[in-house]
Specification:
By secondary structure, this protein is α/β, with parallel strands linked by helices. The protein has a 7-stranded parallel β-sheet, with helices on one face. A 5-stranded parallel β-sheet has the order 2-1-3-4-5.
C-alpha cells in the first residue's frame, strides 16, 4: 500500500475514487498533518498556514511526490524537495480561468469608474454622467508573463479589441524578451503583471518602471505583491503619476488596516480574491490529482510538473 497524506477538504471529491493501492490518511488541521507526514510517500499538504505547509514538507522524509493546488510555491522549501528528488505538481492553470476573468473585470471597473457608481447607489444618488469614460477597444496592454493565466488573459482581451503586447521568458516571434519591455513602457494603457514569484521577478516593477509609464496608465497585478516595489507604487499613486493600480495581491497579506493603499482613490485592492471567485477549484484539482495517481502508478510523467530550479 502507498500512503498518501491528503487534505480533508478534498476528501469528498477523492475518497470514493481512490484506487485500492492507496492508503489515504486525512488531515484537517496543521497539528494532524505534522503528526502524520513522516510516513507519506504522496503528500497533498495544502493549508492556509504556508509556514506549516513548509514544515510538513521538511518532515516528510519518505515523500516522493508532493502535490498542491497552489500555483506559486515560493513559500515551500524548494531546496529540500530538490535535494530529496521529490516530484512536485502544482496548481498551474487550475485558477487560470477565473483570474483571467478577474483581470477583465478590473479593467472594465477602472475604465468605467464602476466603483463610483456603486458608491453613488449606496448614497441613493442618481448620477447624470459616467464617472469613467475609457473604452477597452483600441487600447494597448503590456502583458508580463505568458503562462496559463497570461495566455487566457490575452485570449479574453482579443474580443474587446485590446492590442496586447506579450512578454515571454522564452524567445517567441510574437513577444518581447525580458530585456526589451522596459524601453517600451511608455506606449501602454494597461500594464498587466502575471509573472511567477521568483528571485528574478522580485521588485521588477520599481520606481524607474513606474516613472516610465504613461500618466493615464493602469497597473494591474495578479501575480505576487513582491513583484512591485509597493512603497514606490504608493508614492506614484499619491502623486497621480499614473491613473490607477488594480491590485489583487499586496505585501504583506492581509494588508494592514492602516496601510495607505486602502485609502488612495486610485488604488483598487481586491484582497487576493481572484482565484477564489469560483466554485470549481477543488473539483479541477481533484480530477487532476486522480489522473496523476494513475500516471504515478505506471511511471508516466506527472503534469504539470513544477520546476524546482526555476521556481515555477
Amino acid at each position: 500500500m502507498t500512503i498518501a497524506v491528503l487534505s480533508a477538504i478534498a476528501r469528498p471529491l477523492l475518497e470514493p475514487r481512490l484506487p485500492d493501492w492507496i492508503e489515504p490518511r486525512w488531515f484537517a488541521t496543521s497539528e494532524e498533518l505534522l503528526g502524520m507526514v513522516g510516513e507519506a510517500e504522496i503528500g497533498w499538504f495544502d493549508l492556509y498556514s504556508k509556514d506549516d505547509m513548509a514544515e510538513a514538507a521538511r518532515r516528510a522524509v519518505k515523500m516522493k511526490w508532493f502535490n498542491s493546488v497552489y500555483a506559486g510555491l515560493d513559500h515551500m522549501p524548494l531546496d529540500v524537495l530538490q535535494q530529496r528528488g521529490v516530484v512536485v505538481t502544482n496548481g498551474a492553470g487550475i485558477n487560470a480561468i477565473t483570474i483571467a476573468e478577474y483581470v477583465v473585470m478590473g479593467m472594465l471597473n477602472v475604465a468605467k469608474g464602476y466603483r463610483e457608481v456603486i458608491r453613488a447607489q449606496d448614497r441613493h444618488e442618481w448620477l447624470l454622467d459616467s464617472p469613467g469614460k475609457r473604452e477597452l477597444f483600441g487600447s494597448t496592454a503590456l502583458l508580463l508573463g505568458m503562462g496559463a493565466i497570461g495566455s487566457l488573459i490575452a485570449e479574453r482581451l482579443a474580443p474587446f479589441g485590446v492590442e496586447v503586447t506579450k512578454v515571454r521568458r522564452s524567445p517567441a516571434p510574437d513577444a518581447l524578451a525580458p530585456d526589451q519591455w522596459r524601453a517600451q513602457l511608455g506606449k501602454f494603457d494597461w500594464i498587466i503583471v502575471a509573472v511567477p514569484a521568483t528571485p528574478e521577478t522580485d521588485g521588477m516593477i520599481g520606481a524607474g518602471e513606474l516613472a516610465a509609464m504613461k500618466p493615464d496608465a493602469v497597473l494591474i497585478n495578479i501575480a505576487r505583491g513582491t513583484v512591485i516595489d509597493q512603497d514606490a507604487l504608493v508614492n506614484t499613486l499619491r502623486a497621480g503619476a499614473i491613473y490607477a493600480a488594480f491590485l489583487d495581491v499586496t505585501t504583506p497579506e492581509p494588508l494592514p488596516a492602516d496601510h495607505p493603499l486602502w485609502d488612495l482613490p486610485n488604488a483598487h485592492v481586491t484582497m487576493h480574491l481572484s482565484g477564489r471567485a469560483q466554485d470549481k477549484m477543488f473539483q479541477r484539482a481533484a480530477d487532476r490529482f486522480l489522473v496523476n495517481l494513475r500516471r504515478y502508478r505506471t511511471g508516466e510523467p506527472l503534469e504539470p510538473q513544477f520546476d524546482l530550479t526555476r521556481g515555477y
